[in-house]
Amino acid sequence: MSALIAALPGVLLSAPDPARAESREQLLPVTYTELALAFIRFEQALLESEAAGEDLVDINRRFDRATRHYFSRRLEPAFEELNALAARLQRAEDERWRVELSSVRATFSRDAWILNDGSPSITITAPSSEIESLTLEMVRGRRVIGERDLTLQHGHAAFPIDEIAGAPGPGPIVFRIRPSDAPSPGVAIAHLSVFARSPDAQITELRKRVEALSLGDERAGQIIRDRLEAARPDRRQSSLGSVTQDPSFLLLQIEEELEELESGRDPYRNRAGDYLRPLRASGTTIPARVFVPETDDPERERPLIVALHGASVDQNMFFDGYGRGAIKRAALTHDAIIAAPLTYTFAVNTSNLTTLLEDLSTDYRIDRSRVVMIGHSLGAVSALGFASDRREDLRRVVCLAGFRPIPVGTEMSPVRVYLAEHDYIFSPARVRPFSDAALESGAPIQIITIPDQGHTLIVPQVLDEAIAWLLAP
Questions:
Q1: What CATH number belongs to 270-471?
Q2: CA–CA separation, 371 and 361 (whole Å)
Q3: Residues 6+ away with beta carbon under 8 Å from 234
Q4: Topology of the domain comprising 2-14+22-195
Q5: The model's pTM
Q6: C-alpha–C-alpha distance, residues 274 and 244, integer Å
Q7: Which distant-in-sequence residues (6+ apart) come within 8 Å of 183 by Cβ?
Q8: Low-confidence stretches of the chain (pLDDT beneath 50)
Q9: Contact (CB, 8 A) for 415 and 444
Q10: CA-CA-CA-CA dihedral for 33, 34, 38, 39, to nearest 10
Q11: Which of 221, 227, 226 is CA-nearest to residue 251?
């Protein structure tokens, strides 16, 4: 079958230029999107694994090494480390081909697919000489919308994307590959935004419709304006956000919201689910995501969890990373609302917590006696500031792999600190002088050290326990 498909018109198979004898990294620099897909693969594999003991210690150390590469913007070694870890955690019968497929790269002739401007081409490059025949899957959501068998010649194949399954309609698509004789699903290697027309033209048109609205409550108008601004494709996101917060999908959502506003309905009042809700505070717009569990009684008061991410990531990390969004699963268990703002701008002024509470209270019934905060790394250090400055607003605070000195006599909300045995930044030994001093001064803190864990993977390990403590009576 693969030989027949490869012979079809429009499939361009050609040998790479002999002069291009450089390494893979020089030929195809790793993109943030590819790094995000590798991270997602790794997290999913870790969730499904039973790694423990020395094996878990080694996984943590290698993941932290990948993190240090990422901090230094060395994407290639971070990408390779994540792929190797994901393959290691897969089932034994899958490991060989998953290792090989993790090296396959996909590039596009354009950054996005504008449906009224023709189809871009996709180029598949496989450095491994063992990979000759594979199947490319085009996926939307959980559904495979098209696939194509490929026979690689000299590790290379290129063709127009619409030859796989025609025009898919607006929204994000993911490309997966697998050996032609292996079952689906394959390994996700690329992500592409699909727009009905130029996103700039769409945003301009939607903005005009927003300005033409006659709203009794300007709050809804401000939310949709801020969401439109966030939908601009040139808005820089973290590697994870480049996949999980696709601008083509956000524009589809905004179009539906605008239709509701034009019909006199408020799409944000008691809105359930996971959505981007920027916060106006401290004279700026702070990116934030909100998650609200479905409920039969939206007028019932519910607790609020404020989640502050660590350095070099953004507001998407708690919702899409840290255990593939484990905090959202915990929120479902406790029927709690979560707000995850961008730490860097939110933590600049602790009064932003008051602004956040006031903003969310316009659309949800917040139990003000059960507002809690959790932070990782930089977010943990920031959370300690909120614990003291906003103790009247915060019932409890959890710090994950992050701590700082607490001045003697500081009044603060009760704090639980989780440290990782093998943390290369906030190691227990490094933190101990500060935590001991805080305990001796009577600060309301608990210190818990988790064995076998490193700086980041401690988060999903303790998240359920931490949320349970935060929301306990």
A1: 3.40.50.1820
A2: 12
A3: none
A4: Immunoglobulin-like (2.60.40)
A5: 0.91
A6: 11
A7: none
A8: 1-26, 92
A9: yes
A10: -30
A11: 227
